[in-house]
Each structure stands twice: as C-alpha cells, then as structure tokens.
Amino acid sequence: MPSKGRHLPNCNELYFDPTHYRSIIGGLQYLTFTRPDISYSANFVCQFMHAPTLAHYKLVKCILRYVCGTTHLGMCILASSTLDLYVFSDADWAGCPTSRRFTIGFCTFLGGNCISWNAKKQSIVARSSAEAEYHSMASTAAELTWLQFTQ
Known about the structure:
alpha+beta, 151 residues, 3 strands, single chain
C-alpha cells in the first residue's frame, strides 16, 4: 500500500481490462464501510479508475492480499454500550507529497461503537500545522453538531 513519500513505479502500460479493475475497486469501496483501515489505500487506487496501469493493478492485488490475511478485523457493534458521544480528530499537514495539500479526519463514537468517520484531502494548502488542525476541528465540530441535533 502506498505511504507518504513513496511513489508508484514508472509503468505506463495500461491494464488490459479497465472494467475488471473498476469492479474490484467498487468492491473495495463497499468493504470500507466495515474496514476503515483500508480506506486510504482504496481511495488512492480509485484515483486511477479512468486509465489504470499494471502498477495500479499490482497495488490493488496488495490490498486484496492484506484483506485476505486480516479477515478477523473489522467494525464490531457492542450491545452493551453507553450513549456518551465522543469525537476524535487529526490533521496531516502537507501530507500529499505531490500537491502538499493536507488531510483531515475524524471518528465519532457512541459509547464504544464507532458510528461515523471521515477523511478528506483538502483542496487548499495550509500555511501551518495549526491551520490544518483548525480545519480538522471545524469539520469535526460540524459533524458533532449535526449528530446532536438529529437525536
């Protein structure tokens, strides 16, 4: 799976069946509902659905091998849990090595159950890590406000 600072190998050879690639990626996106640990990787390979190369397909195969080896992981819903609402947020300042844009994310818990999460690469470049954290907190506060008003 790609990590910060690593780039795809230079392989411009297009994958022979883009429909097959899109079908696998669609399944991976569906799987992220219960497996947020693959969200970043699945969204990364989604960026190449219009013209996937063999290098992109190799990344997809790595993700599938990871999923196959970690079938015991996933989201569990606990029956005995409190109704306390907790939210955790974070920001990755200048996390994208090519565009230097930052990524924000948050997780919302109702007791011990994770009920929502979000991660998004922003369309702007933050001037400081404090600005990136501020954007993350603002997004998290908006989600928390929405959840409290929908009760």
